[in-house]
TrEMBL record, chain A:
Pfam families: Ald_Xan_dh_C, MoCoBD_1, MoCoBD_2. SMART domains: Ald_Xan_dh_C. This is Aldehyde oxidase. Coiled coil: none annotated. It comes from the Bacteria. Residues 21-135 form the Aldehyde oxidase/xanthine dehydrogenase a/b hammerhead domain. The lineage of its organism: Bacteria, Pseudomonadati, Bacteroidota, Flavobacteriia, Flavobacteriales. Residues 145-169 are annotated as: Disordered. It comes from Flavobacterium limi.
TrEMBL record, chain B:
It comes from the Bacteria. Keywords: FAD, Flavoprotein. InterPro entries: CO_DH_flav_C, CO_DH_flav_C_dom_sf, Diverse_Substr_Oxidored, FAD-bd_PCMH, FAD-bd_PCMH-like_sf, FAD-bd_PCMH_sub1, FAD-bd_PCMH_sub2, Mopterin_DH_FAD-bd. This is FAD-binding molybdopterin dehydrogenase.
């Protein structure tokens, strides 16, 4: 594209007005005639069986239509595989109401359907289950001996096992003149997007459904519903035009979708099921993780040995795994490495990807150990990272498609004033406050999935783009419109992007910061193909001035087709449509990474975060006072929405470091703070002025636009930067997250 | 949430009659707590008596003896920002503004603030035992997740804490709670209003089922020059106190004439120890003396594991709050602990 007018510009969110005025409609807000309301009932025991269920009092209640339990659930797809969504980990997928077994506390065990929500909710208090309880295990730290290697399955290529050991770690570590080691325990976290999980199913008759669902993947959920309920794909349409955050929790269909569709099909009625905030704690979560690291360095400050071993929690029925341990070796060379990752199955729901899954947890531990090793070596922490800087990926020995991490370090450090730092812990004091400065490196994959886009030149001479992706609040609508408009030579208001609909051409679920590259690349190839088709058509017009002009000299600009450098040779889109007998011109094209080319490279986004905080010297209370993150993530399509992504991500980083924790009671086997009053996320007062810097990073390998994606990358460095700043302020290494202020007393 | 009857009353007498006509009736004022409890299925009133129309309870009135009377229905925010309160009882303003959020303070009433229930996780979960919710069912907090729980005045039946900020200031100011019942009115000294759990943790306070709070009296005092409310919590706003301290002094130069210290977040009621206050009388205002007073306040404190830290934290917080109280001009609203 020689003519980028919109790509790279800070365009404001196109749907911003709809969102701030409340006109944007979410899954629970779609009206349908004679709508029924479902209320989910969850298990109050952690493990065991349902011996009996008494629905009589519920059915006597006026307004109750039906109660679904394992006793009356209709026969459905028998095979596990048909329940497996695109993100299902190895194992046996949980099938709601399929049997009387209780696998975890909060498991859905009934759906009460009534004429209104209040009746359904009240009826839930009259539904009586008799359980037989069995002993259970829910606390990771008490079940580490159960840890074993993860099983392999369909998702293994996306989440490969850790790289094989190199050299002789134990020997190299023992002989290393400088060593740092530590154990890190991370608490359970729940995604808690603002929008509750909700499905409105419109029963269209004849096994045909239109489903408004909260999800990160419309096609994923369409396939799931069609497979499980034995419906034709074309008869299941899943729409998610707006999504009020998801953070990974929508990568898999949640149980309200299954229950809502079940009720709609059985009752042949329109049904809505909305979860309550408490129920947002009754499915996937970020798992408890225990990590153990040992790094060794030589006298030149080069790392010689790296060991990162981790145990994560999973359920008893699926092996959820994260990419947790290999990140250090994607950054730092070392001749001797040992990476291990195991799972301990517990009586809890299967975890699910959450905000930089694996990456943020692993990088917290890695970058705290790096800080400690720098102190042991008496080298500035940033200088230590530069000494171990690698332009290639040390773990694969392949070059990166691009890597401007050095620029992140330099620009971030300069803006922060890192060179003014007194390395001595507890050396800077403001009144009663100890001041700490910490930094850390961040890294995340640069994913790109295959995607298909349809491009249509409309009768009005405008451009429509269609793709099934969602916009989970990231700015997808806006950046896709920018990409398409530039490629076609149109302005933003001449391009419409239609999305959030499983009927549209294929997109993977929206996760891992992959969609801008995935759908963006598909749009570029689709519009290019559309332009080819248009050029062919204009050459066919009788007396066309373009007949003899070679294709590469024909450009699209300002809603017209021109000969390059010949402004008087042109044809407008309207004329083209007229010449096409007033019919639209359209193409559908698959875009995806060039796997043969990419295979020779490693790909990643990088960041460096710098944090200042104050700690009360007597009381331990922590206030983050400054935070800067510099990001190298290829071409930034929209600096405004990208900055918002990074700011949000930084807040989640502070949140993980200092706030978020789902409190598990191991004696009861359940989470005790299942509400936003006691599950703490930061409030405005916890977040300082923050800055985002984007490094110039040209990437001509990864895809045509050089897009790597932003989102998770803004978070991965923050928890370690916070923990390292706490060390700098106090001299205390607090490895477990979240860091509560009493640990600093 | 069950179906219920709703009545709106505009006088204290008729409101009391209404609520006493049904054993399972409740008043609603601001509704900032009861609606949550209802939705969580912790409480299920059959009759809701709306008292928001009783205008006589919505005034702040200066009394002849120099004190001030807060009507039970005055909103927390209106109290905190009232010029008379800001002038005479700035400690109360500061405590109120440390609590909840602006939206909640705009709804919540002063009478209701006294009656809010504990935030104990186990109390809030109807599917687990809790002696406060179901007497005799047990207390999983004793050996469970008890980081937020009480260190003072515990019993083996309950270690819940009373969550109010406002009431910590009211305890320090020795407020008096005026209540009305079918047999007339009575006045309850603040220290006797909330109770310790003992073997009846289901009773938070000494208000009878057939009574209603009509007003809160703030006695005349000189505690408006040297005061502070220090709240320590997991985030800078919208979190309940792990430890909070209301401290106020009457000073003569550097000599303490009168001291008031009350703690929040540590017990089933706002915690005061008059011995510690007596000790400070006539002493010089030094960190050492405040530390002795703090040890006194915390006499007998006991942790249950996760909340052990509250003992050293409270000790340090008392000393800091007392030091801060000497020089309240340095304290911006909303600022973190400092001097």
């Amino acid at each position: 594209m020689e003519n980028k007018l919109l790509v790279g510009k800070p365009v404001s969110r196109l749907e911003g007005f709809e969102k701030v005025t409340g006109n944007a409609k979410y899954a629970a807000e779609y009206a349908a005639p004679d709508l029924l309301y479902g209320y989910v009932v969850n298990s109050t025991i952690t493990k065991g069986k349902i011996l009996s269920v008494d629905v009589s009092a519920v059915l006597e209640l006026a307004g109750v239509v039906k109660v679904f339990t394992h006793e009356n659930r209709p026969g459905l797809a028998w095979f596990d595989l048909q329940y497996a969504d695109m993100d299902a980990p190895p194992g046996t997928v949980f099938k709601p109401l399929s049997d009387n077994k209780i696998r975890y506390n909060g498991q859905p065990i009934a759906l009460i359907v009534a004429e209104d929500f209040e009746t359904a909710r009240y009826a839930s208090t009259l539904l009586k289950f008799v359980f037989e309880e069995e002993p259970f295990d829910t606390l990771l730290t008490q079940n580490l001996e159960k840890a074993r290697n993860p099983k392999k399955g369909m998702s293994t290529p996306l989440k490969p096992p850790p790289p094989k050991p190199k050299g002789d770690f134990e020997k190299a570590y023992k002989n290393a003149p400088f060593q740092a080691s530590g154990d890190f325990l991370h608490a359970t976290e729940h995604h808690n997007p603002m929008e509750l999980y909700a499905t409105t199913t419109v029963y269209e008759g004849e096994g045909k459904l239109t489903i408004y669902d909260k999800t990160q993947g419309t096609i994923n959920n369409q396939l799931y519903v069609a497979n499980v309920f034995g419906l034709k794909y074309k008869n299941v349409r899943v729409l998610a035009p707006y999504v009020g955050g998801a953070f990974g929790s929508g990568l898999r269909p949640q149980y309200q979708l299954f229950l809502c569709v079940l009720a709609a099909l059985e009752l042949k009625r329109n049904v809505r099921v909305v979860l309550e905030r408490k129920q947002m704690f009754s499915f996937g979560h970020r798992p408890q993780v225990v990590q153990s690291l040992r790094f060794g360095a030589n006298t030149e400050g080069k790392i010689t040995a790296m060991n990162h071993s981790a145990v994560g929690e999973t359920s008893k029925y699926e092996d959820y795994n994260e990419i947790l341990v290999p990140w250090s070796h994607k950054l730092y060379p070392a001749a001797n490495t040992l990476f291990e990752y195991k799972l301990a199955p517990l009586d809890l729901a299967t975890p699910i990807d959450m905000r930089a899954p694996g990456g943020v947890s692993g990088m917290h531990a890695i970058e705290c150990i790096m800080d400690e090793l720098a102190y042991k070596l008496n080298i500035d922490p940033l200088e230590f990272r530069l000494r171990n800087y690698s332009d290639i990926d040390p773990s694969t020995q392949k070059p990166f498609t691009s890597k401007e991490l050095r620029q992140c370090y330099e620009k971030g450090a300069e803006k922060f004033g890192w060179n003014l730092r007194n390395p001595k812990p507890a050396s800077t004091i403001r009144g009663n406050k100890l001041v700490g400065w910490g930094m850390a490196t961040g890294i995340w994959d640069a994913y790109q999935f295959p995607a298909r886009a349809e491009a249509i030149l409309t009768k009005e001479g405008k451009l429509e783009i269609h793709n099934a992706t969602t916009d989970i609040g990231t700015g997808t609508l806006t950046v896709m419109t920018q990409i398409a408009a530039d490629e076609m030579g149109l302005s933003l208001d001449e391009v419409s992007f239609y999305y959030g609909d499983s009927k549209k051409p294929f997109s993977m679920f929206q996760g891992g910061s992959a969609i801008t590259a995935s759908t963006g690349a598909a749009i570029v190839v689709a519009v290019k193909e559309l332009k080819k088709k248009i050029i062919k058509k204009i050459k066919d017009i009788p007396d066309s001035p373009f007949k003899e002009i070679p294709e590469e000299e024909i450009v699209f600009r300002n809603g017209m087709v021109h000969q390059i450098n010949q402004p008087n040779v042109f044809i407008s889109f309207n004329e083209i449509i007229r010449a096409n007998k007033n019919k639209v011109i359209k193409v559908t094209k698959l875009g995806g990474p060039d796997l043969i080319k990419i295979r020779k490279f490693s790909k990643a986004t990088h960041s460096a975060s710098f944090v200042e905080l104050e700690i009360d010297k007597d009381l331990g209370t922590i206030s983050v006072t400054r935070a800067i993150t510099a990001v190298a993530a290829g071409k930034i399509i929209n600096p405004k929405t990208a900055k918002s992504q990074i700011l949000g991500s930084m807040i989640w980083g502070i949140s993980k470091a200092l706030h978020e924790e789902t409190l598990l009671d191991q004696h009861l086997g359940k989470y005790m703070n299942a509400n936003l009053g006691e599950y703490h996320i930061p409030v405005h007062a916890d977040i300082p002025q923050m800055e985002v810097i984007f490094a110039e990073e040209r990437d001509s390998v990864i895809n045509e636009l050089g897009i790597k994606g932003v989102g998770e990358i803004g978070m991965t460095a923050i928890p370690a930067a916070v923990a390292n700043a706490i060390f700098h302020a106090t001299g205390k290494r607090i490895n477990d997250l979240p860091i509560h202020f009493e640990k600093l007393l | 949430m069950n179906n219920f009857q709703y009545k709106k009353e505009i006088t204290v007498t008729t409101a009391l009659e209404a609520v006493n006509s049904n054993e399972n009736a409740a008043f609603i004022a601001g509704g900032t707590n009861i609606i949550d409890l209802w939705k969580y299925n912790i409480t299920n009133p059959e009759l809701l008596v709306d008292i928001n129309g009783i205008d006589e309870l919505r005034t702040i009135q200066e009394l002849e003896d120099g004190g001030v009377r807060l009507g039970a229905l005055v909103k927390n925010a209106a109290t905190a920002y009232h010029p008379v309160i800001e002038k005479k009882y700035p400690l109360l303003s500061k405590a109120i503004l440390a609590g909840a959020s602006a939206q909640i303070r705009n709804m919540a009433t002063d009478g209701g603030n006294l009656l809010q229930r504990t935030r104990c996780y186990y109390f809030y979960d109807p599917d687990v035992p809790c002696n406060k919710r179901v007497p005799g069912s047990g207390c999983p907090a004793l050996n469970g997740r008890n980081r937020m729980h009480a260190i003072l005045g515990n019993s083996e039946h309950c270690i819940a804490v009373f969550p109010s900020d406002m009431c910590v200031a009211l305890a320090a100011l020795e407020a008096v709670v005026n209540v009305m019942g079918p047999n007339g009115s009575r006045s309850i000294p603040f220290a006797e209003f909330h109770r310790l759990p003992g073997d009846m943790p289901h009773l938070d306070n000494t208000l009878q089922q057939d009574e209603m709070i009509t007003s809160i009296d703030l006695p005349s005092n000189h505690l408006y020059k040297h005061y502070t409310y220090l709240k320590l919590r997991d985030r800078h706003s919208y979190a309940f106190a792990l430890v909070s301290v209301a401290a106020a002094f009457e000073m003569d130069g550097n000599e303490i004439k009168k001291a008031r210290i009350a703690l929040g977040g540590v017990a089933h009621k706002p915690w005061r120890n008059t011995e510690a206050e007596e000790f400070l009388k006539g002493k010089t205002a030094t960190a050492d003396n405040f530390l002795i007073a703090a040890e006194n306040v915390l006499f007998g404190a006991q942790g249950r594991g996760e909340n052990d830290f509250k003992i050293p934290l409270a000790r340090r917080a008392i000393v800091r709050a007392c030091m801060m109280a000497l020089n309240p001009e340095t304290q911006r609203p909303g600022a973190g602990p400092s001097l």
